[in-house]
Amino acid sequence: MSDSKELSMSPHISIDDSIVKKYALTKEEWTKLLQRAESQFKLQHRTGWKLWTKKYQEFSEGALSFMQDLKPLFDIVTGMGIPYVGLAIGTVTMLFTFSGKKNTIEEELSSAIEGIRDRLPGLKMYQAIYTENNELELDVQKKILFAYLAFIELSMEITRYFTQPGYRRWSTAFFNSSKFKDMTIDVYKSLSDIRLRCEELVGLRIDILVHGMESLKSRNEELHAKIEELQQDRNTAHLLEVQNALGLGSWTPVIHRKMLAEYRTRLFYEHDEEIGLSQISQVFSSFGESTMRT
């Protein structure tokens, strides 16, 4: 049953099909109106202070997530006893505060920050795994410190750039456009060095584990042999208990084999005696028969 018929059957409401069709058309118009409003909103936010507000809101959300990604780096450096880590966090916070305007070099800076974020290794995982004080793991900690210093230096330079007057930013972009690019490459390289060193440590750990497994296998084989030996000793002890219970306390396998050999010899001797007596009786019987015939 259609909506119009349902409405017509109501005792309090009576609406014909034309009103229903008009309502449907109005709903389509509302959809188009909302689409136009959304498009107009985007156009209005492309220029002026509205653009800055929109970008500031979006960038603030990204900044919070980015600071969470950086937290393991700050934790590790703090654990090394490096001072002024709080000041460094303030510098990074200012970096996001002064990030409203856009030109060519500022687009590159925004891309650089996102690139650093993508290249941030699992520093929290490294902190949990590499805790020993050998040469390679100390080198990992040193490389993490270098990456931290390079990133903070880049953040300070970017913050200094944003706080400059417009003509100073223009001169920096015109005369020294590769400055931030070179510093960003240094940060990328520092983070890549951490990963490369960690890959070497992974290889070292695998080699240690392989040798450890071989040693463990050899140890297990030795323990298995000892267990079998103990089991045999236990079986022998049970046999001795049975011997004592049967009154065979002096029994040994050597004595048992000796007794069997003597018994076997005695049987052969008795067997030979029986054969000899049988032959003698046969001789005497044949001699008696020949005498009787004569």
What is the H/E order? HHHHHHHHHH
What Rg is obtained from the alpha carbons, in whole angstroms? 49 Å
For the sheet with most strands, the description reads: none
**Mean pLDDT across every amino acid position:** 62
Structural class: mainly alpha
Number of helices: 10
Q: Outline the low-pLDDT stretches.
A: 1-27, 48-57, 97-104
Brief descriptors of the model:
85% helix; single chain; mainly alpha; 0% strand; 294 residues; DUF7708
Topology:
Layout: H1 3-9, H2 17-44, H3 48-79, H4 85-97, H5 104-119, H6 123-129, H7 135-163, H8 166-175, H9 179-245, H10 253-293
Helix pairs in contact: 3-4, 3-7, 4-7, 5-9, 7-9
Characterize the structure shown.
This protein has 294 residues and is mostly helical. The chain folds into three domains: 3-43; 45-208, no CATH class; 253-293. 85% of the residues lie in helices and 0% in strands. It contains ten helices and no strands. It has helices at 3-9, 17-44, 48-79, 85-97, 104-119, 123-129, 135-163, 166-175, 179-245, 253-293. The longest helix has 67 residues, at 179-245. The radius of gyration is 49 Å and the shape is rod-shaped. It starts with a helix and ends with a helix. The model is unreliable at 1-27, 48-57 and 97-104 (pLDDT under 50).
In short:
With 294 residues, this protein is mainly alpha-helical.
